[in-house]
Amino acid sequence: MREDNMPVGKTIIAKGFEPDNFICWAELNDENIMRLDLQEPGVVYEILEGREEDKCYGIVEKTIKTSDRDVISEQLSIESAKEPITASVMMLRVIRKSGVTAPVGRHPIKLADASGIQTAFNIKEDGIPVGVYTLLSGIPPQTCVVKLPFEYVLGPEAAHINTGGQTGYAKTAWNLLCCRAILSDKELSKETCIIAFNVKADDLLWVDKENTELKSEDLELYKLMKLEPKPFEDVKIFAPEHPVEINEPNSLRFDAIAFSWRWNDIKDQLHFAISPEDWDDKLEALLTDLCSIEEIQSFDDAILELEYMIREGERGWVTSRTGATHHSATALKAKRILEGIRNRFRGLIEGKSEPLPIEDLLVKGRLSVIDVQRLSEPAQRLVFSKVHADTIRKLEEGTAGVKKIVYLIDELNKFAPKAAKPPISGIRDIIDDIAARGRSIGAILMGIEQYPSQISDTTTGNVSTFILCRMKAPELDAHLYRGISNQVRQVIQRLPKGYAVIVHDTFTSPIIIRFPRPPCAQHRPIEYDLLSYIASKTPRKNRADVIKEFQKILKEKPYEELREILHKYIDQGLLPKDLVQAYLNEKARAGSGHVKRS
Ligand SMILES: Nc1ncnc2c1ncn2[C@@H]1O[C@H](COP(=O)(O)OP(=O)(O)O)[C@@H](O)[C@H]1O
Ligand SMILES: [Mg+2]
After folding, report:
1. What is the atom index within ligand 1 of the atom nearest the CA of 201?
2. Which ligand number lies closest to the CA of residue 450?
3. How many CB atoms lie within 10 A of CB 186?
4. Which of 87, 516, 523, 580 is positioned for an S-S bond with 221, CB 3.0–4.6 A?
5. Which pLDDT score, from 0 to 100, does residue 82 have?
């Protein structure tokens, strides 16, 4: 779009105009009448009212085009002698810099400059940069970085950003960018840590690796947003211990820090790990009873205790050593469930590794990723509830080393679905609590899911910033989106990757943004299979050094030399041929498309 300082059209008073609404109609001049880019939703005009002390702007909400004889054509009949007879009028949302809300008369309009766009949408100078104002036809020349107000991202005004949209339309990518923007802010990074849960796939596991997919357009966007396209520096990746390989993480990341919990660590969260079909109040009562018995120190103790109770039981009832009575059937069920957990959660519980070190999560400026991707849903719930309980306690006690914790949860639908039975509803209550109350204590939720309409109402009701990536019509028909105009909903259905619509409490209208690919890798780096193989063949104690050395070779040696070195590795039986070949092929391919950063 041309940045034009000349008027391109004028406002008209449409029939039915009411002086108390803040909408007006406008049309383009003859020479611009065919310019579709000037009529897109989101275009901002300055309405030249000629008042020295105030400025007036109009954001295009919709454009009505017609070639029929109807009210609008009638209205435009004097000017619509041109062929084909297609009249278009634009509906503008009117905003004045002064905040005055008066009707608009007939005035020329021109494209707003960047500061006009800021005023029109109420984008503040200060804030967290999350993208660049754009239109579906591309970024207009009046570039305007969209910033979210600090107090609406990290409290106290609000503390929940939610991202929804179809798979593959850069939801996770936007959240990684937003995390980068938060931690790149000098002040925020002094008091904030981020804890991300890698629930599905592996796209949160490479946050400390370079994104080799960045294109020159991404780098431009980073420059505009004044962010560095660099991976996260202070990163810790945690994963439960592997069920079979002692002390090794159950993760694609061979270098993740393995953790394992004992009975006492997780007995308070145990009920979250039970499936809804098994759950009932009687079972809950029995588990609570078992957890209160100090002599029980392990799953084996708990199972032995139940066996003893069952043996000693009479006429369908059992009594625990606290004196409480339970149905025998409940005791049998509890025994089966605890045995199941002990066997299926092996590694995550009662492995050889230390428990997850909570203090290591609560370090300012750090992004920690907890990889639960390989766990079953009940085990994922257990991990989330345990990490949440321990971290929030420290935050509330004021012993947390940080003032704010951002919980980044991909697949929020697994934790906070609208329709949920216990114990899943218990997890949903935790999420609801963060969304509703977190802002006052420094607990911030960044939730991601495909269908925000399927998330708990309390959670979505407390969203101050919605990031809507491409969505389909049935989702957009949900009650949740009733405040969004049909035109914006149509835009959302057409958004390409890297575009989103932001609906934010303090913005006057939804804003279409363009954002760059994330600053870190979202896919497994091409060398990872080699590193992982070498790690598996190297004893733990010198693994870090060997890997570091090997990484250096991969990074620094020119292609031909590297090829020779790797073939030597094959000859010495240190690497398998197919892995090396796959790596070299990919490297050759990536080498041709990769943009080098200065
Ligand atoms: N800003 C962007 N512009 C264009 N493509 C992008 C952008 N961010 C990510 N992508 C591409 O889109 C793919 C899907 O992104 P992802 O964040 O995994 O989507 P989702 O979480 O919605 O499933 C990424 O693998 C990446 O290649
Ligand atoms: Mg994703």
Report:
1. 18
2. 1
3. 8
4. 516
5. 47
With 0-12 / 13-18 / 19 or more C-beta atoms within 10 angstroms meaning exposed / middle / buried, residue 567 is: middle
* CA 86 to ligand 1 centroid distance, Å: 39
Tell me how far apart the alpha carbons of residues 304 and 244 are, in angstroms, rounded to a whole number: 24
Query: Which DSSP string do the residues of 422-459 spell out, in sequence order?
Result: TTHHHHHHHHHHHHHHHHHHTEEEEEEES-GGGB-HHH
Cβ proximity of 506 and 203 under 8 Å = no
Residue 15 has pLDDT above 80, yes or no: no
**Residues 535-578: tens digit of each pLDDT:** 999 988 899 999 999 999 999 999 999 999 999 999 998 999 99
Taking CA atoms only, the protein residue closest to ligand 1 atom 3 is 498
Q: Could you report how far apart the first and last alpha carbons of the chain are, in Å?
A: 29
Cβ contact 382:269 at 8 Å: yes
CB atoms under 10 Å from CB of 572, counted, come to 8
- Distance (Å) from CA 373 to ligand 2 centroid: 13
Strand 192-198 relative to strand 499-504, pairing: unpaired
Do the Cβ atoms of 196 and 204 come closer than 8 Å?
yes
Q: Is the CB of 516 under 6 A from ligand 1?
A: yes
pLDDT reading at 78 higher than 80: no
In ligand 1, the atom with minimum distance to the C-alpha of 450 is 22
**290, two tokens:** 């078992």
pLDDT tens string 194-212: 999 999 999 999 999 999 9
Taking Cα atoms as reference points, which of 562, 538, 495 lies closest to residue 170? Answer: 495
Strands 404-409 and 192-198: parallel
199 alpha carbon, closest ligand: 2
Q: Ligand 1: distance of its center to the CA of 80 in Å?
A: 44
Q: What is the CB neighbour count within 10 angstroms for residue 237?
A: 23
Domain 145-256+356-514 in CATH 3.40.50.300? The answer is: yes
Tell whether ligand 1 has an atom less than 6 A from the beta carbon of residue 481: no
* Residue 295 dihedral angles phi and psi, to the nearest 5°: -65, -20
Pairing of strands 192-198, 367-371: parallel
The amino acid sitting at 478 is: A
Interatomic CA distance for residues 451 and 475, integer angstroms: 7
Q: Is the CB of 366 under 6 A from ligand 1?
A: no
The atom of ligand 1 lying closest to the CA of 496 is 4
Contact assessment for residue 291 and residue 267, using Cβ atoms and an 8 Å cutoff: yes
At residue 589 the predicted structure's pLDDT band, cuts being 50, 70 and 90, is confident
Angle between helices 377-397 and 424-441 (to 10 degrees): 30
Q: In what order do the strands lie in the sheet with 367-371?
A: 145-148, 128-133, 511-514, 499-504, 465-468, 160-164, 443-449, 404-409, 192-198, 367-371, 235-240, 257-259
**Residue type, position 106, single letter:** R
Give the model confidence (pLDDT) of 421-434 as tens digits.
999 999 999 999 99
